[in-house]
Each structure stands twice: as C-alpha cells, then as structure tokens.
C-alpha cells in the first residue's frame, strides 16, 4: 500500500479507525493494548520542547542578502566579496522577556537574529533592535533576566526587582532610556531597525584585522506605539507583529533593510576614548560612519513554524572564515550560552535540522551519536552517524577530512593580568544623557511618565538611587523623574 493519502501510524501502518478507542464492550473501559491510542497520547504529551528562557515568542522568514559593496579589503568572508552576490538568509524576530503566549506589543527589546547561508558555512548575526544592551558582562545576565521574569513567590512581573537591579547597575542607563522612550514598543517587526549590537571582527587576505558593527536600517520606515496604542492592540490582537509579517510576505510586500557596517582598524581600539567592546555603548557615527554594503529582503515564509522557527538555533558562535569575535565580554558569554541552550532545548544534533544545517555547503566532522544521530539534512544528507566513516582525526583513510589552514584567523594580541575586573573608569551616563537631550519635549514627557508609571511601584530607597542615576545622565532628566515621583 503506497498511496500517501492513507492515514498511518508512526511506523507507517495503515489506520483503519482513528475516531474510536479500543474498549471492552460498547460501554466498557479502554484496553492497554490499544497501541494507536497510546501512541497518539504519548506523542501529544511530548509535542512541546522547552521554550526559550529569553526570546521565547517570535516569528521567522527566509530571504536574500545582496551585496552592493565589495568588502574584500576588510574580510575574506565569501558573502561579503563580489558586488551583486546573493546569499540565502533566515531571520527570527522576537520579543525578549515574554513567554510563548505573551503579546507582541509589549514594551520590550526585539530580537533580530539573522543567518547567512554562505558558501563556507552559516554565519549568524544574533542581535536586537537596539544598538546597546543593559549589561557589559555576561556573568550578570542570569540575574538580570530573573528580574524581568516572574517573581518566584507571586508569579507576577516584579517592578521592584527590575528597578532594584538597575539601581545597582548604572551601566543599564543607556538601554533603560531607550526602552522607556518612544522607541520601546515597535509597531511591528518590519518597521524597526536591527543591530548586531556586539563588536565583531573582520580579517582580510593580508591577515589584517578590523573591528565591525552591523546595522540593518528598515526601508519601511520606523513606527513605534504609545502605551495607550499598545495596550489597545494587545487586547485586539496579541499576535499583531506575527500577523503583520505573514500578511506582508503573503501579499508580496517584501520587507527590506539596508545593511550597513561601522569599521574600526584594530589598533584604534587601544586609544579610542570609549571601550569599543562595551555593549552599553555605541560608536559615534561622526568617528566611524556607516558604510552601506547591501540589502536584506524577506520573501518566503516557513512551511512549518515548529520545525523552522521554534527549532531555529541561531548563535553568535556560528562564524565563518573572515568573521570573528572580539573581547566584548557579553559576546564572549553568549558564544557558549546560545549553542548550549540549543543542545538542551532541541538536542545535541540540532544543526542537522533543515533550518539549521548549512544550505550552501557540506558539514563534515567527526562528531557522532546523540539524539537524532543519522538525521538527514535535506540539503546534503546525513552528517552525524549516517555512515561508517571514521569518527576521529587525523586518520589515514582515503576519506580523511583535511584541515583548511588557508582560513586561519590571524593571532589576536592580548595583554593584562587575569582578574575579575570591577568597574574601571567606565562612563555609564554620558551616552544616556546624550540620548535624552535629543528627545523633543513631548517625548521627554512620555519618557518620564513611562518610567514613573513603573518606578512608582517600588520602594523609596530604590527610587532615590534611580533619581541619582538619571541626574548624573542629565540634570533635567533627574529633576523631572524626582518631581513626578513626588520626591
């Protein structure tokens, strides 16, 4: 029986009746031998994998990146060499703090995770819709996220924990100002910018290294929601951003972003007046202007949300020759944390799933075994455990895998003593104050109202500490917050 229209069990056996359980008589109890019932219920209990601790709710799409400026002077990365070259892409947008069932229109950063399926492997730029973040050191990240999640006693969101943490970590001031401003609630995923946020590195054929930041500028324009608009939209359609992207691509109104980079010569980092690897800071465009390099277009929706979006496993550790990391402490922590989260959620061979495996090149390695071993990547067949080739290297077999020394990254010079460095002459306030000062009067009023709507719910000591931080960023900023709180 080969007709694919027949309903079958998981082992391929035809099902005669899928509507009635096997029972002892018409009114009798069910029988344990009803393997068909057991299979359906057991699978149903296991249909969900653990949701992401952060970025749990999101949506994805495929597209193309078209290079419009050759970057061979800066990098050997294949997708950044050759004007006109097109590279297949996948992107996952998300909110950060909410659960799978949360509303899309929350005041929250938005994840902007982009994958390039390059000829030399997958390159992921896993960033946000903001160029900065709340922290500069990944060791604080679990504590920070605990303050954004539910209180372990009440299971309610906890303004006290959130502001208490920020009061003790003034490095968050720049990102807090962004989040609480009019920029804090993007109307949808199409009408917002994206950023790699971290500092990455490029290296060219001469072995020269450059530091780089990625910027994705929406060609749809920027639209944000007020608190009132967002509250109304959350009640009308909690899936508003998901729906917007699906409808746009279905209607062939393909979203586009202009791709830009900022590039800093390696030596500049030693003398630049800010730490270029500090995720709480931006590089002023007056010092390192945006360089337009291409266009990102989203033009295809996934066929299966669970398989292609829920199990998408983007990670900043997915790098290719010509692209490297930097001493950015948050980035260094994420290199481990993201891939490890995917191993936990999806399984050790998560990279063999269609959305995660390389599309434009073959993955060849000595890793074997584990859950899903032998799963066939639809682009290149099985990668792990699907054949009897050696699972060690080096080896003397005819099919021995060879190292590609031509892609070696140039050495990175390091200097300093190993220590746990605390705050050292870090300026946590200037860029936050600069941002505040460019806001118009109406936006300043909305910013203060948004901050105080939440900050008013916390203890007096935390309020007073936050007023000190706001004042150090800008005297008017702190004065308005203080007056609005009645301090």
TrEMBL record:
<dbReference type="InterPro" id="IPR024711">
    <property type="entry name" value="Catalase_clade1/3"/>
</dbReference>
<keyword id="KW-0575">Peroxidase</keyword>
<feature type="compositionally biased region" description="Polar residues">
    <location>
        <begin position="383"/>
        <end position="407"/>
    </location>
</feature>
<dbReference type="Pfam" id="PF00199">
    <property type="entry name" value="Catalase"/>
</dbReference>
<dbReference type="InterPro" id="IPR020835">
    <property type="entry name" value="Catalase_sf"/>
</dbReference>
<feature type="region of interest" description="Disordered">
    <location>
        <begin position="383"/>
        <end position="419"/>
    </location>
</feature>
<dbReference type="InterPro" id="IPR010582">
    <property type="entry name" value="Catalase_immune_responsive"/>
</dbReference>
<feature type="region of interest" description="Disordered">
    <location>
        <begin position="1"/>
        <end position="21"/>
    </location>
</feature>
<feature type="binding site" description="axial binding residue">
    <location>
        <position position="338"/>
    </location>
    <ligand>
        <name>heme</name>
    </ligand>
</feature>
<keyword id="KW-0408">Iron</keyword>
<dbReference type="GO" id="GO:0020037">
    <property type="term" value="F:heme binding"/>
</dbReference>
<dbReference type="InterPro" id="IPR011614">
    <property type="entry name" value="Catalase_core"/>
</dbReference>
<dbReference type="GO" id="GO:0004096">
    <property type="term" value="F:catalase activity"/>
</dbReference>
<feature type="domain" description="Catalase core">
    <location>
        <begin position="8"/>
        <end position="401"/>
    </location>
</feature>
<dbReference type="InterPro" id="IPR018028">
    <property type="entry name" value="Catalase"/>
</dbReference>
<dbReference type="InterPro" id="IPR002226">
    <property type="entry name" value="Catalase_haem_BS"/>
</dbReference>
<dbReference type="GO" id="GO:0042744">
    <property type="term" value="P:hydrogen peroxide catabolic process"/>
</dbReference>
<dbReference type="Pfam" id="PF06628">
    <property type="entry name" value="Catalase-rel"/>
</dbReference>
<feature type="active site">
    <location>
        <position position="128"/>
    </location>
</feature>
<dbReference type="InterPro" id="IPR040333">
    <property type="entry name" value="Catalase_3"/>
</dbReference>
<comment type="similarity">
    <text>Belongs to the catalase family.</text>
</comment>
<dbReference type="GO" id="GO:0046872">
    <property type="term" value="F:metal ion binding"/>
</dbReference>
<keyword id="KW-0376">Hydrogen peroxide</keyword>
<keyword id="KW-0349">Heme</keyword>
<keyword id="KW-0479">Metal-binding</keyword>
<keyword id="KW-0560">Oxidoreductase</keyword>
<dbReference type="GO" id="GO:0042542">
    <property type="term" value="P:response to hydrogen peroxide"/>
</dbReference>
<dbReference type="GO" id="GO:0005737">
    <property type="term" value="C:cytoplasm"/>
</dbReference>
<dbReference type="InterPro" id="IPR024708">
    <property type="entry name" value="Catalase_AS"/>
</dbReference>
<keyword id="KW-0963">Cytoplasm</keyword>
<protein>
    <recommendedName>
        <fullName>Catalase</fullName>
        <ecNumber>1.11.1.6</ecNumber>
    </recommendedName>
</protein>
<feature type="active site">
    <location>
        <position position="55"/>
    </location>
</feature>
């Amino acid at each position: 029986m080969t007709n694919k229209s027949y309903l079958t069990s998981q082992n391929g056996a035809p099902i005669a009746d899928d509507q009635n359980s096997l029972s002892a008589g018409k009114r009798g109890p069910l029988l344990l031998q009803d393997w068909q019932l057991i299979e359906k219920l057991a699978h149903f209990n296991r249909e969900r994998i653990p949701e992401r601790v952060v970025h749990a709710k999101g949506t994805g799409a495929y597209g193309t990146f078209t290079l419009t400026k050759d970057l061979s002077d800066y990098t050997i990365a294949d997708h950044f060499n050759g004007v006109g070259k097109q590279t297949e892409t996948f992107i996952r947008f998300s909110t950060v703090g909410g659960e799978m069932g949360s509303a899309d229109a929350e005041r929250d950063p938005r994840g902007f995770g982009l994958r390039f399926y390059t000829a030399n492997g997958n390159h992921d730029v896993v960033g946000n819709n903001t160029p900065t973040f709340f922290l500069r050191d990944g060791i604080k990240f679990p504590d920070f996220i605990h303050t954004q999640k539910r209180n372990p006693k009440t299971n309610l969101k906890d303004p006290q924990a959130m502001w208490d943490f920020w009061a003790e970590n003034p490095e968050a001031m720049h990102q807090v100002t962004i989040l609480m401003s009019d920029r804090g609630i993007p109307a949808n995923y199409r009408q917002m910018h994206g950023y790699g946020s971290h500092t990455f590195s490029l290296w060219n054929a001469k072995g020269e290294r450059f530091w780089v930041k990625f910027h994705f500028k929406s060609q749809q324009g920027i639209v944000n929601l007020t608190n009132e608009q967002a509250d109304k939209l959350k009640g009308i359609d909690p899936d508003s951003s998901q729906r917007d992207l699906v409808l746009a691509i279905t209607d062939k109104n393909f979203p586009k972003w202009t791709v830009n980079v900022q590039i800093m010569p390696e030596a500049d980092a030693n003398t630049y007046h800010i730490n270029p690897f500090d995720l709480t800071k931006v590089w002023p465009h007056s010092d390192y202007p945006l360089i337009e390099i291409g266009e990102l277009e989203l033009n295809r929706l996934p066929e299966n949300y669970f398989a292609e979006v829920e199990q998408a496993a983007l990670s900043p550790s997915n790098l290719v020759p010509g692209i490297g990391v930097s001493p950015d402490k948050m980035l260094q922590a994420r290199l481990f944390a993201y891939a490890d989260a995917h191993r936990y959620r999806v399984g050790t061979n998560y990279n063999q799933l269609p959305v995660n495996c390389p599309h434009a090149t073959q993955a060849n390695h000595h890793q074997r075994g584990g859950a899903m071993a032998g799963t066939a990547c639809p682009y290149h067949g099985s990668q792990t455990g699907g054949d009897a080739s050696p699972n060690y290297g080096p080896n003397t077999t005819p099919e021995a895998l060879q190292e590609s020394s031509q892609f070696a990254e140039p050495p990175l010079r390091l200097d300093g003593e190993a220590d746990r460095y605390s705050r050292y002459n870090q300026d946590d306030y200037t860029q936050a104050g600069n941002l505040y000062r460019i806001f118009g009067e109406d936006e300043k009023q909305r910013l203060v109202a948004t901050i105080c709507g939440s900050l008013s719910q916390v203890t007096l000591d935390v309020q007073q500490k936050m007023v000190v931080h706001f004042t150090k960023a800008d005297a008017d900023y702190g004065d308005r917050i203080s007056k609005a709180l009645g301090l």
